[in-house]
Write a structure and sequence with these properties.
Shape: globular
Bound molecules: flavin-adenine dinucleotide
Structural class: alpha/beta
Oligomer: single chain
Number of helices: 13
Length: about 450
């Protein structure tokens, strides 16, 4: 049977765009791609990229103060969202255009439309068009989720932050994950009064406990009103703002309440049932090691599969799918030892096991250090850097590395290479230090802080 497309991709985000481009350019496939919102997806339009630009914007307050401590004659006025916002929008427009051009130059036919599956070999677009496809790749990502409670319709999510006409003065952020913590730090840095509620005992669940404590303490020291064990009961709109009643009966008034309590896969009304594609408890598409669903012609990559929800992982899953299906080279995306960063202030870089996970594998040596870095110490700041290496006592392998420091994201990318290669503690030890930099501590921690 002749199909309209060899591959039809649903979703123009990190995973979908990479798969579409490679299938067309390297796999020689006739490819179609439908995107219902903006090309580039979450990462480019309402995730990593705009967020990182806001991280940069928010860091200048401290940097300007530090410059004054170093002798510069500088005065910092307030941050002006009206200057930043159009520049941010222009940059996102530029990137979206670049994504569109890349797809076009690689002969991918794009459709600005919503798509859904009709059966294992057919998609229908919101324009009414229908296409037959040899393979379908679902790469529809995820979206923020606000639980229902009285006044929940007054809450917004990370999606709306980038669209703000004005910067609010008082913000409540609900949630303790990386997105909640990053926005707490960003908005605080931009001069917004930030309160953060998290119903659990500590923020950043799933990361190394000690690092979490260090970040929470730093956030509080900087002036973020972090309230653990606290949740929202109701939100009511009044003339002076959004009145929030919390579980501990502490009322607060805010200009915006941002929910960052979790994301769900975009699988609703996607025709998955009609096509016979199985989903899990959260609605995520269930796939095997090659990103193939239970329906042989349908594959899924990225956040919609809820494996590791990060851009580089979605991209690699998309590339592995093309290797497998269009290049005759069965390839499993590698989900082991994925380094990542949390752009709090200070930043957090992490790779491998947490101490809690490493302890489960046998006896480990824990190497820790905490110190005030030269640059901010000189400027009179109390900021502390935290570094931790987890080493398997028997094999000597470094099982995990956790860094809370300015530029920790940059550091962990490089430490991640060594750890991915299977570096031992002795490999770290015989690597000569670079001096004077913060990261030299990674190769100079001689004695374990504890053996557990
Ligand atoms: C605020 C925020 C910050 C983040 N920061 C980072 C970070 O610093 N580093 C990092 O690695 N990751 C980060 N992420 C996660 C990262 O953005 C995602 O892991 C990544 O974008 C997933 O790519 P994807 O291709 O699976 O889906 P997405 O990029 O979400 O793309 C899916 C696309 O499909 C479209 N779509 C959905 N349904 C349909 C349909 N039926 N028809 C047509 N189109 C459809 C959507 O509009 C969307 O454009 C962040 C996420 C958020 C929300």
């Amino acid at each position: 049977m002749a199909f309209d497309f060899d591959l039809f991709v649903i979703g123009g985000g990190s995973g979908g765009v990479r798969a579409a481009r490679l299938a067309a350019s390297e796999g020689g496939a006739k490819v179609g791609l439908a995107e219902e919102y903006r090309m580039g997806g979450t990462c480019v339009i309402r995730g990593c990229v705009p967020k990182k630009l806001m991280v940069f914007a928010s860091a200048f307050k401290d940097q300007i103060e530090d410059a004054a401590s170093y002798g510069w004659d500088v005065n910092s006025g307030p941050f002006d969202w009206q200057v930043f916002r159009p520049k941010l929008r222009a940059e996102l427009d530029r990137l979206e255009k670049a994504y569109r051009n890349t797809l076009k130059n690689n002969t991918v036919q794009t459709f600005d439309a919503r798509a859904e599956l009709v059966d294992p070999h057919r998609v229908r677009l919101s324009t009414g068009e229908e296409f037959t496809c040899k393979h379908i790749l679902v790469a529809t990502g995820g979206r923020p989720f606000v639980p229902e409670f009285p006044g929940s319709d007054l809450a917004i999510t990370s999606n709306e932050i980038f669209l703000w006409e004005e910067l609010p003065k008082r913000v409540l952020i609900v949630g303790g994950g990386f997105i909640a913590c990053e926005f707490a730090c960003i908005l605080h840095g931009l001069g917004v009064e930030v309160t953060q509620f998290y119903r659990g005992a500590q923020i950043l669940r799933g990361f190394d406990d000690e690092a979490r404590g260090h970040i929470a303490a730093s956030m509080e020291d900087r002036g973020i009103n972090l309230r653990l064990g606290e949740n929202v009961e109701t939100i009511t709109k009044k003339d002076d703002g959004l009145h929030v009643r919390s579980t501990s009966a502490n009322d607060g008034v805010f200009d915006a309440v941002i929910y960052a309590t979790g994301r769900v896969p975009n699988t609703e009304n996607l025709g998955l049932e009609e096509a016979g594609v199985e989903t899990g408890n959260k609605g995520e598409i269930l796939v095997d090691d090659y990103s193939q669903t239970n329906v042989p012609s349908v594959f899924a990559v990225g956040d919609v599969t809820d494996r590791i929800n990060l851009t580089p992982v979605a991209i690699r899953e998309g590339a592995a799918f093309v290797e497998t299906v269009f290049k005759g080279n069965p390839t499993k995306p590698d989900h082991d030892l994925v380094a990542s960063a949390v752009f709090t202030q200070p930043e957090f870089g992490t790779v491998g096991m947490t101490e809690e996970e490493a302890r489960e594998t046998g006896t480990i040596e824990v190497y820790c250090t905490s110190f005030r870095p030269m640059q901010t110490l000189f400027a009179g700041r109390e900021d502390k850097v935290f570094m931790k290496l987890l080493v398997a006592q028997e094999s000597r392998k470094v099982l995990g590395c956790h860094i809370v420091a300015p530029m920790a994201g940059e550091m962990i990318q490089l430490a991640g290479i060594a750890i991915k290669m299977g570096a031992t503690k002795e490999d770290f030890d015989r690597t000569c230090a670079v001096h004077p930099v913060m990261a030299e501590e990674l190769v100079t921690m001689k004695s374990p802080t504890r053996v557990v």
